What does this fold into?
Amino acid sequence: MKSSKKTTLIVALLAFCLTLSFPMVVSAREVDSSIAACLKAWGNQPFGNTPQFKTLETSVKVFGIGREAGDTEPTSSPSLVLINPSFNVMGGSTIELLNPNGWYCLRTTVSIMGRVSIRAHCKAHLASTSAGTTVLGNNGENRNLKDIAVTTMGTISVERPCN
It folds into this structure.
């Protein structure tokens, strides 16, 4: 690839990712449908039909620069957490979901020519609001990973420690 085309591609990717890093207004209907999709995926869950939940903000990393999402504080009762999209372009990123009572509802994780590692406590529950896709990438050996990630020439893995 010629240098000018490569530079144009990198600038376009940076501009796209930067627009995603600004807070987005999400209507109650969208949030409700996301939570509803996860509740349906789990089936038996402790939250009822109209649960309260907290939201982790969008995480964007480009060339290893940017912020990461995480929920590391344990709670004494089940905690429902909606995780807004995570984007990683040409770098490494780790999402830590370490609350053993966490019920994590992932909107989407996107990795383009990069590596994303999701560390979720072994007792935590994971579900996704949509199906994922892999193009010229590797989603490891975890079958459920295809449902939470979009990978293009990158890698996404899930680690389940029991600390």
